[in-house]
Amino acid sequence: MHRVGEILEFTNVSQWNWVPTNLNPADLATKTNNANKYKTWLHGPDYLLQDQHEWPICDDLGPPNNAEVRHNILFIDNSPMELKLNAEYFSDWRRLYRALARFILYIEKLKAKQKKASPPTEVSYEMIQQARTLLLRHAQSSEFNPEIRNLTRDENQLLRTRGRAENLNGQNQILLPYGHHITRLIVNWYHQEMHHTSHETCINRIRGMFYIPRLRVLYKGMRKSCQRCKNESAMPVPPQMAPLPIARLAAYQRPFTYVGIDYFGPFLVAVGRRSEKRWVVIFTCLTIRAVHIELACSLDTASCIMCIRNFINRRGTPRQIYSDNGTNFKAAEKIICDKAQTINFNAVQPAFDDIKWKFNPPAAPHMGEHGSDFKDDEAITPNHLLLGSASGYKPVFETTHTVQHMWQAVQEFADQFWRRWVREYVPDLARRGKWFTKRPPIAAGDVVVILDENLPRNRWPKGIVEQTILAKDNQFTVEVCCDHIHLMDLHVIFS
Questions:
Q1: Tens digits of per-residue pLDDT, 356-370?
Q2: Structural contact between residues 344 and 391, judged by C-beta atoms closer than 8 angstroms
Q3: How many CB atoms lie within 10 A of CB 425?
């Protein structure tokens, strides 16, 4: 630009000469040319070696003024104006057509100002109808352009079906494309008008006004994406049944090595002329399913420790204890496990610091190994190890066995029990009776509905997952925060 300005300032047109395009050496650097014209590039065209009166002449050399010469072309498009709008920005049919109606109100104000008339002040019913018509025409033009040009339209330039139900609303149905965003907004609006119920009635109302191909498929997909419908139709999604823990498969271990503890009751007992409450503490061997029962006078920590002490004096010190999150169990765990070295329960008892106490998550009793679906086999019972036989009678040894060698017979009897236990009992435990399919783990931040059997479905609280604890099989125990209450619950529903 500056170079051209200098040329126009310090020269005039009479000093210029014309170079034809086919002889211009400057084009060799900017245009593709396979010809070998290095001489032209270095020395210029050949006519420069001739007399100046033989050079090419151009009569209209140079522009008449400094203005750029342009050719004005007028193009008139008689095609109808297409409505340009971003309908995907809206998620509600009513908000969409009312927003367009307000834009029409703005246009009417501009027209009134141009005509110096009083402008309208609010959106009228006619503007809303005009907005709806424009939106329906926009939806049809995106899919049915060839049909719009070839078929007859109504007074609003809309495509309608020609069927036998035209007397239902005085006119035929408006044709709408299946996958258009405006179509989905209309279907969703009717669904909300029916308060997310009476789905067949809702479909019939839509069919009374519009013809939408595959309407049932569209309506079903819309219900799957509706948050309220998902909450009302949600079902618990249990994870795949986990493998049995070591406590259930501890073969060749003495009874009550792995113990589950729980309370049941209370029961009224007669003490003189008055009645008092008593509770029963049940100790269950998680391996052979043997049961030990102790009587508790109250639910406090001291009574709980006394029952555990009586149990250990009779059955020995367990390796692991499983229980729920009762306050008495929590306090007993601190005393027995954390302060075992400072408290001496019994001088002849083994050290209590060998005990490991595990607590089940709240509202998840199935994590306490409470039973399994199997048929009782009378041929093998816990009494075989506790009492020596199923009925309680001790096996009689031959007189040829000395006292010193009886331990071999007892060991062989125990080995027979455990062999049958592994062969007959474990296969029933290993079978998954339910929860066969693995589920994707719930992640922190997911919104869930917490199943509460004591409340009706529409009163179930919602929660946000704060933390998930993955098990060895990548299934989960989830911590839910709901109304500032921390719940540990596997019965959660994705919402």
A1: 998 887 766 566 557
A2: no
A3: 20
Is 434 contained in some domain? Answer: no
Instruction: Report the pLDDT value the prediction gives residue 48, as an integer from 0 to 100.
Output: 87
Of 232, 260, 287, the residue at which a domain comes to its end is 232
Which tokens is 418 given? 């455990």
The tens digit of pLDDT for each residue in 256-281 reads 999 999 999 899 999 888 999 999 99
* Dihedral sign (CA 80, 82, 83, 84): negative
Residue 115 sits in the same domain as residue 162: yes
Q: Do residues 295 and 410 share a domain? A: no
What is the spatial distance between Cα 381 and Cα 299, in angstroms, rounded to a whole number? Answer: 31
- What backbone torsions phi and psi does residue 59 show, to the nearest 5 degrees? -70, -35
Residue 295 lies in a domain: yes
Alpha helices, DSSP H, located in 317-425: 327-333, 383-386, 406-420
Written as six digits, the tokens of 395 are 């096996």
Which is nearest to 258 in space by CA: 249, 247, 266? 247
Which regions of the chain are under pLDDT 50? 340-342, 345-350, 371-378, 483-495
Domain end point (choices 30, 54, 78) = 54
pLDDT of residue 12: 83
DSSP-derived pairing of the beta strands 462-470 and 476-482: antiparallel
The DSSP annotation for 54-85 comes to GS---TT-S-SSSSPP---------SPPPP--
* Residue 495: predicted pLDDT: 39
Domain count across the chain: 5
Give the per-residue pLDDT at 126: 93
- Write out the residue range of the structural domain in which residue 186 sits: 87-232
Coil, helix or strand for 362? coil
Residue 447 one-letter amino acid? V
* Residue 256 structure tokens: 């009550």
**Do 315 and 347 reside in the same domain of the chain?**
yes
Write the pLDDT tens digit of every residue in 414-448.
787 788 788 777 777 777 777 777 777 778 888 88
- Strand ordering across the sheet containing 258-271: 291-296, 274-285, 258-271, 320-323, 356-359
Choose among 212, 220, 154: nearest CA to 183: 212
